[in-house]
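Regression test case RT-17, inverse folding.

Input:
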């Protein structure tokens, strides 16, 4: 019998449009005497445990040629993808069956903000509206009239950007978001703690005291310890517009809450079928289906990003090292303005919303929205992972 709180997932849509033609890797929880997470490969005939060779995803991504290393590792088949996905999406899981996890472990979870012109304008609107959704429409009209629509053509850090900055400052309209949107320095912040990200098929969290929030469909870069981009996946950078709009100093409360980071379903490694240029051309679609019948549809495309992925990675690593690698949310073009309630109130999540983020080369990430306060507490941290690794695989 289907539990009404199960998350409806089509296993075939978890996969990219070309199925398993690329090199897809992830993590799964294996039950048994040595229960814990393992690195897996997704192949045409099932899901394979690679844990005998790669104890951590960080180990795999640090291989000289990660995709080649996966192809050279047979692994042990743990089941059909459809069965494992189905079990992952169940609200009440059978503890004897494997389920998918977020496809990262020791990677630091970083995010770049204000990397698209449209989302830049929406951040300025949040700031000017002081986080009040009722004021957003009026502020939006004023900001768009003052700034115009030419931001798409402005290259961050260029002389043109400096001239625009000077003109806006003269009008008293300069903003901290414009500074990172078109200035030389990108906004890069730490989104969430190690191991706190959730994967596909599980509930994500929005703070119960937030009245203006939204999903953010993003491409997430997988970067190794040498600052090489070795693959990509999808992410939902759950965002609280009211908190950040009140003050940018509330960014931590806006971005880092229980269940507020979803990544998955798999990392697609770079190989002959998937390259950085595919990331640069990636188109994303988003749908939100509410329990109240509300439907929101949106899109984002990496074709309109203002900073190249290589630049974002270079700015992330300019003054810091990441010995276990990191993942980097690239930002989003998507900023919903569709009213869900009273006219002018804009969009905000309701409990029970099912959020689907899809890209042709990366598959589909599916989650249901709950309150952060009611989600199961995050309890599996680095110490527990190290204990699991220390115990070894065993018989």
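Golden output:
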């Amino acid at each position: 019998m289907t539990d009404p709180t199960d998350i409806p997932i089509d296993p075939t849509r978890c996969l990219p449009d070309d199925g398993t033609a690329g090199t897809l890797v992830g993590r799964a929880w294996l039950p048994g005497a040595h229960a814990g997470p393992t690195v897996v490969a997704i192949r045409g005939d099932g899901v394979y445990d690679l844990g005998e060779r790669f104890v951590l995803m960080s180990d795999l991504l640090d291989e000289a040629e990660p995709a080649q290393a996966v192809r050279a590792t047979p692994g042990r088949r743990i089941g059909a993808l459809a069965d494992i996905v189905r079990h992952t999406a169940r609200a009440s899981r059978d503890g004897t069956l494997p389920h998918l996890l977020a496809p990262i472990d020791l990677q630091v979870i970083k995010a770049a903000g204000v990397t698209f012109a449209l989302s830049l304008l929406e951040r300025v609107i949040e700031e000017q509206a002081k986080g009040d959704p009722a004021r957003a429409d009026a502020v939006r009209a004023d900001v768009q009239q003052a700034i115009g629509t030419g931001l798409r053509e402005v290259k961050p850090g260029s002389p043109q950007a400096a001239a625009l900055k000077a003109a806006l400052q003269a009008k008293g309209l300069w903003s901290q978001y414009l500074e990172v949107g078109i200035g030389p320095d990108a906004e890069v912040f730490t989104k969430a703690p190690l191991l706190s990200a959730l994967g596909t098929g599980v509930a994500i969290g929005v703070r119960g005291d937030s009245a203006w929030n939204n999903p953010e469909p993003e491409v997430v870069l997988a970067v190794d310890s040498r600052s090489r981009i070795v693959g990509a996946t999808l992410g939902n950078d759950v965002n609280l517009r009211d908190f950040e709009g009140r003050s940018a100093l509330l960014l931590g409360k806006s971005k880092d809450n229980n269940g507020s980071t979803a990544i998955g379903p798999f990392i697609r490694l770079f190989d002959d079928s998937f390259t950085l240029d595919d990331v640069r051309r990636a188109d994303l679609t988003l749908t939100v289906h509410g329990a109240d019948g509300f439907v929101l549809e949106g899109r984002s495309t990496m074709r309109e990003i203002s900073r190249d992925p290589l630049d974002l990675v270079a700015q992330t690593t300019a003054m810091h090292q990441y010995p276990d690698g990191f993942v980097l949310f690239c930002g989003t073009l998507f900023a919903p303005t569709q009213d869900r309630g009273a006219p002018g109130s804009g969009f905000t999540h309701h409990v029970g919303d099912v959020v689907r983020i899809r890209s042709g080369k990366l598959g589909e990430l599916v989650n249901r929205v709950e309150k952060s306060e009611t989600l199961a507490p995050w309890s599996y941290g680095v110490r527990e992972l190290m204990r699991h690794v220390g115990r070894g695989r065993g018989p």
